[in-house]
Known about the structure:
The complex is a heterodimer.
Chain A: E1 2-8, H1 14-22, E2 27-30, E3 37-43, E4 50-54, H2 66-78, E5 82-88, H3 92-102, E6 109-114, H4 116-121, E7 125-126, H5 128-135, E8 139-141, H6 150-160, H7 174-189, H8 195-203, H9 207-212, H10 217-226, H11 236-252, E9 256-257, H12 262-267, H13 271-279, H14 284-301, H15 308-314, E10 331-332, E11 335-336, H16 339-366, H17 371-388, H18 391-407, H19 409-423, H20 431-436, H21 441-447, H22 454-463, H23 473-487, H24 492-516, E12 527-529, H25 538-572, H26 587-595, H27 613-624, H28 627-640, H29 644-652, H30 657-667, H31 671-683, H32 688-697, H33 703-726, H34 730-765
Parallel strand pairs in A: 1-4, 1-5, 5-6, 6-8
Antiparallel strand pairs in A: 2-3, 3-4, 7-9, 10-11
Chain B: E1 2-4, E2 13-19, H1 23-31, E3 39-45, E4 52-56, E5 59-63, H2 65-68, E6 71-75
Antiparallel strand pairs in B: 1-6, 2-3, 2-6, 3-4, 4-5
Amino acid sequence: MKRFALAGNPNCGKTTLFNNLTGSTAHVGNWPGVTVEKKDGVYKKLEENIAIIDLPGIYSLSPYTNEEVISRNYILDEKPDCVINIVDATNLERNLYLTTQLLEIDVPVVIAINMMDVLEKAGDTLDEKLLQEKLGVPVVKISALEESNLKELMEAAYNASKSPRQGHTIVYNKDLKHLIGDVTIAFKGKNVENPLFHAVKLVENDEIESKMHEDLLPMVEEFKKTFNDETFGDDIEAIIADERYNYISDNFSSAITRHVEEEESKVKETKSDRIDKVLTHKVWGLVIFAAILFLVFHLTFSENFLFLKQAFEANGVAPCFEGTIYEGLFWTDAGINSPGVILFNFFDMSFSAIIDAVNGAMVGALGDGHWLTGFICDGVLSGLFAILGFLPQILVLFLFFSIMEDTGYMARVAFILDRIFRKFGLSGRAFIPMIMGFGCSVPAMINTRTLADENEKISTIRVIPFFSCGAKLPILVAIAGGACEVFGFAHVDLITYLMYVFGVVVAIVAVLFLRHTTLKGDAAPFIMELPQYHWPQFKALMIHLWDKAKHFVKKAFTIILASTIVIWFLSNFGWNWQMVDSMQDSILASIGMFIQPLFTPLGFGSLLSPIGWVFAVAAITGLIAKENVIATFITLGAVAVSDPAIIEAIEADEEGITAVVQMINATGISWQGCIAFIAFNMLTIPCFAACATAKAELKKGTFKYTLLFWIITSYIGSCFVYVFLSCFDVNTLAWALPVTLGLIIAGVITVVGIRVYNKKKNVARA
Amino acid sequence: MLKRLDEFKIGETGLIKKVEGEGRLRRRLFDMGVTPGATVYLRKKAPLGDPLEVTIRGYELTLRKSEACLVVLEVKEDQ
């Protein structure tokens, strides 16, 4: 099967083109050895099927991050039958820069001028014949978004792939041309493929090339001695970059006929400019960002949508869902539900109905109290549904972040926040994987590949789990919800919001610590395109969401289901492999009791009643997958109480709040302990999937330290939370205040110690 | 008048004369179109004064002051 590779700048519409060419045949995987996403698929509308490979979006073939290296090596080593170079019509100049490099490789190239619809809407025209003539390769005008001319593009590529193409360079400086010619001949003598490309890169002083072909370097060095350009001296790298751009502007500025004159259009504000003025405003930029972040979480999780309850009450209007079946779905006593919660409730109610039906059928067939009924209903179904139940909220959250990414707002967020992040030794770019961590740590960790600096990457990966992911949210909702109910506090979403902020604060402290101790270094350069704002694309969003949902459901049905069953078994069976009557006698209880004292400084250890070990057990099962924490509460909650009515209530509530309420009452944990427990789960080792990703993304040997880092941070962090919050209770103030002060002093001493040590070391080095 | 990009005021335009620095950083600047001969227009600064947003070669590029100080420009007075 012939293989066509898609190459182009980021934001040039490559993904859209790929989606529309390959449709349902797309396969998402990784490039071997690195974790940069590799997408391939099949195009079926030609006489033979064509494999389409989507290369990472790049600006150049010179190495900056892994992405340039991957694209370059794929074209050079895997030799696709044709390279389709996608060029954004609205920004020919920068896009064609990559083209001038691609043309130096001996591979058939076809140029797809994309976003013609945008160009034409502005009233501009583009002369593709002129481009074709100058570049010497076929040029096809397309619109990936409107799917126009895609067949023509593929036909052109198919025809081009039939005959080999000799690379050519646009470098026109006479002396340089000679040098490149000589080096090319030398490469040919060495039987190197793509001699011209390698020659140009060697002359450009390219990092990879200089290492690979050291023997030819003297040729270039010798030349430099005699070479002296008027403006650039012997700075060949600058000359070639300059020549590429000059060639482009000399030849192609005439290809576009603008509706409005260039000067005029500069003065005229585009829509994108107007949006930008508001979103990146000096003062309002940060405020708007905070507001957007709050709104996203409010729309996903709030049970008092837009605070309408207060508005209704102020006007004396009674809620109209009272007593109907819609109560609970759209409305609780807290207020009207946000869209995320409505979706959640819908699934929740359906799942309860299924459990009830299965339970009823099994009791009818097997009689009361059969172990199999307990296994299916309490073990398998309630555990599984507890996890699947919050998939809608994860997806809603994903949707919002994808929209922010796709519209171009995320890049602005990096722009706004860079100054703050640099203080911590990170670039604003590092913010994007971090904020993605709010959705799921796995894609967030993969996203760190865009960070050029290794130490910055490791630090970022280590703190990503602190940006509480979607799977940790049920812990927050259930524990905070349960605690609010028991201790009579009305604002669950306030606690939720504050816990998210807490995670961010810990991340900041941890990054500062890492960047000043084991992972030193200055912030990596921040040179980034700010793409034009544009509407997100429904189809691409859906494909993205579908991938996430698939991944999540798969996880739910494999590792999580298995561990749910294991927990059910461990909590229902004793060491004699017989079913136990009371969970006090179960295997799990003895494991929990054994490790329980470890959590005493965290507020959920020995100080609780005898069954306080459930917190210890839940924290441990959470290591397998965060969804398990609440699933454990539900499973154990159903075992812990004897009243069938309460058991039913626990099973009916997939959010786990009922189970948590039971647990709080049964263990006598304080509200400070509850919050500390949330903090522990937020900061500790993430789920297996995230661990596996981290291991793959990190340099060899650093993963074990990363694990250790997570354990220590979660222990210290949640201990501090417990002690600090205990200051707010008159009964515990007496011991909590001195301990809090002690911890703060210890922290200050550590900071001062690190500073003094670093200073001494710097002086010694100087 | 020669001036470095980090010393520019919002709304100023200049012609790049020289790009300093070395290695990857400089290469990256070239790849993003920051080469001698290109016209740069300083659009705005981030809320905290850094990084900068410039228009170059028909698109918007953001870079920090610490990278902008590598770019030496001839200020265009006609603005």
